[in-house]
């Protein structure tokens, strides 16, 4: 091997470590990179969290964690019309999101980086009758990677739908 080949190899390895360090190290099971990757990912996740999802038997509350003077947003469970899970392509990863339609013409988007996400997602079927649990939609939304894969997990029945369904079994 000549010096140019060795230098090119070192430069390529350096570029791969800089660009893909945590992922490459984790894939190759290099302990230093795995530990660094886990700590770095946790720091980034905490640093990115801006909003917190909280809920009780009556409503969902969204709190801005960075602006303590802002008013929280409250959405009553009874106001929710439709829930759609989907993914956003965030360069090298996907971000699972929830699009909430409420009060006829209002919308808000939650995502998995929000504090309280997991508990909120797990609680949805308990607060919204007919809402699919995560076991029924997660793989449809998560795969294939880097595709939006929208999946409606809840839609409030209108009074006319309820009437039609109750009349369907009548002779």
Description:
The chain has 5 helices and 7 strands. It starts with a helix and ends with a helix. The chain has helices spanning 3-27, 31-48, 117-127, 134-142, 159-167; strands spanning 51-55, 59-64, 73-76, 80-90, 93-102, 106-111, 151-155. It folds into 2 domains: 3-47, no CATH class; 50-156, no CATH class. Helix 1 (3-27) crosses helix 2. It has 171 residues and is α+β, with helices and mostly antiparallel strands.
How do the helices and strands line up, and which of them pair or pack?
Blueprint: H1 3-27, H2 31-48, E1 51-55, E2 59-64, E3 73-76, E4 80-90, E5 93-102, E6 106-111, H3 117-127, H4 134-142, E7 151-155, H5 159-167
Antiparallel strand pairs: 1-2, 2-3, 4-5, 4-7, 5-6
Short description:
Helices cover 42% and strands 27% of the residues. The protein is built from five helices and seven strands; from the N terminus they run H-H-E-E-E-E-E-E-H-H-E-H.
Largest sheet: 4 strands, antiparallel
Number of domains: 2
Task: Tell me the number of helical segments per DSSP (H or I, 4 or more residues long).
Answer: 5
% residues in beta strands = 25-35%
| Strand element count | 7
Q: Largest sheet, order of strands side by side?
A: 6-5-4-7
The dominant shape is globular
SSE series:
HHEEEEEEHHEH
Query: Which structural category do the helix and sheet elements fall into?
Result: alpha+beta
Low-confidence stretches: 29-36
Q: Determine the mean pLDDT.
A: 80
Rg over CA atoms, rounded to whole Å, is: 23 Å
Helix-residue proportion? 40-55%
Q: N-to-C terminal Cα separation, in Å?
A: 87 Å
């Amino acid at each position: 091997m000549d010096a140019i080949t060795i230098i090119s190899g070192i430069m390529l390895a350096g570029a791969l470590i800089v660009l893909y360090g945590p992922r490459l190290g984790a894939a190759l099971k290099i302990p230093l990179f795995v530990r660094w990757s886990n700590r770095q990912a946790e720091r980034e996740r905490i640093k990115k969290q801006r909003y917190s999802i909280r809920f009780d038997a009556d409503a969902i509350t969204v709190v801005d964690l960075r602006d303590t003077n802002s008013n929280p947003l409250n959405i009553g469970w009874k106001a929710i019309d439709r829930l759609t899970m989907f993914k956003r392509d965030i360069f090298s990863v996907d971000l699972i999101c929830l699009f909430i339609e409420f009060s006829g013409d209002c919308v808000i988007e939650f995502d998995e980086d929000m504090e309280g996400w997991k508990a909120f997602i797990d609680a949805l079927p308990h607060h919204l009758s007919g809402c699919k649990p995560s076991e029924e939609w997660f793989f449809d939304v998560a795969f294939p990677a880097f595709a939006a894969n929208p999946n409606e997990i809840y839609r409030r029945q209108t009074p006319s739908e309820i009437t039609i369904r109750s009349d369907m079994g009548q002779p």
